[in-house]
Amino acid sequence: MSLRFVIVDDDISICKIIAHIIKKNNLGRVLVECNDGMAAKDIIQETTPDIALVDLLLPGQDGIELIKQLKELHSKTSFIMISESDSQSMITQAYQSGIEFFIHKPINVLELVSVVQKVQETRKLKQFMTIVSNTTAKYLAVDGGENQSEPEVPEKGRVNRVFSDIGIIGEVGVKHLYQAMKLIYPYVQADKSYQLNDIYCQLSDQTGNDVKTIEQRIRRTIAKGLHNLANLGLDDFYNDKFQTCSTALFDFKEVHTEMNFISQKSSYRGKINVKKFIEGLLFLVHEN
Q1: CA 224 → CA 109, 217, 227, distances in Å?
Q2: Is 54 helix (H, G, I), strand (E, B) or coil?
Q3: What are phi and psi of 13, to 5 degrees?
Q4: Model confidence at 242, in pLDDT bands (50, 70, 90)?
Q5: Nearest 5°: phi and psi at 236?
Q6: Which H helix or E strand runs over 153?
Q7: Burial zone of 237 (CB within 10 Å; 0-12 exposed, 13-18 middle, 19+ buried)
Q8: What is the C-alpha separation between 181 and 191, in angstroms, rounded?
Q9: Are 241 and 166 contacting, i.e. CB atoms less than 8 angstroms apart?
């Protein structure tokens, strides 16, 4: 599906550059180019683009405030912020407002194309989860919940390939991660909520390990994956494995934070989200 874009920047030349990159690399089509923060709010609401590229500093209102307002209105648009600012506090505020990625000016073609592709992967992940949930719900409604076959468990080989890609295949917690994924998969299929502690308790009954040990092993393994992925991104930001896994398995702002920690630009480490990791893992193994 072709992506639909809105570009918001008070520098007309920047808008033209971004629009040209989008067209030349067949990323989608630009619906509107806008130069004012106040006008952009109405435009994005009316056109509902897939992706909006928004400058940090805008006349009328800044990009952070614009995105906050649109997020409060439950906008489904994905936001990429563009700016000359190197301020870590401003970048942090931008991520907190709800952006997917932050791109520095001057615009780098490879970076812009890469970031747009990563946002597209994130959107596909969300759509995948919705389709799985809706399909399962329809099936249950027709079948009445009876004579249901067990949901197909993702093939272990595919899962291990993802573990290998982020350098955790030999970690102790990998076994528990795969077992947890098998337990969580039916909940995702049926669009049912679940508590991780309940999953850990089931694993404890299955393996004989105590709940706390299982949780710690899983979290340490995922944290190791985040660290390895951040190192990969520092070495080669455009690496395919980094591009795919940094958005599917983690919040990219946390990958960015871990990269800053490794580079000694920050004393804060990136945080992990066990549910996002496992549900993202399900998406990756189905995609492949």
Answers
A1: 31, 10, 5
A2: strand
A3: -65, -35
A4: confident
A5: -155, 90
A6: none
A7: middle
A8: 15
A9: yes
Q: Identify the residue whose tokens are 């795969």.
A: 178
Handedness of CA 11, 13, 14, 20 (dihedral sign): positive
Distance CA 139, CA 128 (A): 16
Q: Mention every residue, 6+ apart, whose C-beta is less than 8 A from residue 21.
A: 27, 107, 109, 112, 113
The pLDDT of residue 140: 46
| Cut 0.70: pTM above it | no
In three-state secondary structure terms, 31 is strand
Please give the structure tokens belonging to residue 74.
């439950």
Residues 97, 75: contact at Cβ < 8 Å?
Answer: no
Q: What per-residue confidence (pLDDT) applies to 13?
A: 93
CB–CB of 27/3 below 8 Å? yes
Could you give the C-alpha distances from 133 to 179, 275, 288, in angstroms and in order? 21, 16, 20
**Token pair in block for residue 85:** 């600012």
Strand partners, 3: 28
In which element (H, E) is residue 130 found? helix 109-143
Cis previous bond, 106, omega within 30: yes
Nearest to 188 by CA among 250, 272, 128, 120: 128
Helix, strand, or coil here: 34?
strand
Distance CA 158, CA 141 (A): 31
Cα–Cα dist 60/58, whole Å = 6
Q: What domains, with CATH codes, occur in the chain? A: 3-107 (3.40.50.2300), 127-287 (no CATH)
With a cut of 60, say whether residue 288 has pLDDT above it.
no
